[in-house]
# Entry
Amino acid sequence: MPRSFGKGLGWCHGRFKGYGYRLTLSRQAILDVLSKTSEHLSAEEIYHHAYKIHPSSGMSTVYRTLELLAQLQLVYKFDFGDGRARYELNRGIEDKNHHHHHLICINCQRIINYTDFIDEEVELLNKTEKGLTKKYNFRIMKHILQFYGLCERCKEKK
# Structure
């Protein structure tokens, strides 16, 4: 496996080095898997993809690496209520479309990234953040919204 990252992932190496960690081939394989998907993969799914890239990576390595990546804020760890942690690469400010919310189907567990905000939504969120900041003297750094319901396919079946 080549030692270079996929497009736009070079910044990860600096973050690892800055915190005193090495960017091993297993860690690189996991980041590569996450960089090539828009899905919210579980540790098991990441393992199956990473194994194809770097077969000597074990399941325990994947779990440990994902916890480290979450701690370093290189990945987001989500709980969508299906009993499995799911992960998504933190693309940071390099990706202008990185901020999104999630629509989660309570029937089929489908997860939809919601990015096409309308002005009223942006205005409401900004007002909410400003109000919470003032009320609690709390500096908001980010937010995560998850909406639960039925996707189009499941809604039509009911």
Q: What stands out?
A: The longest strand covers residues 75-79.
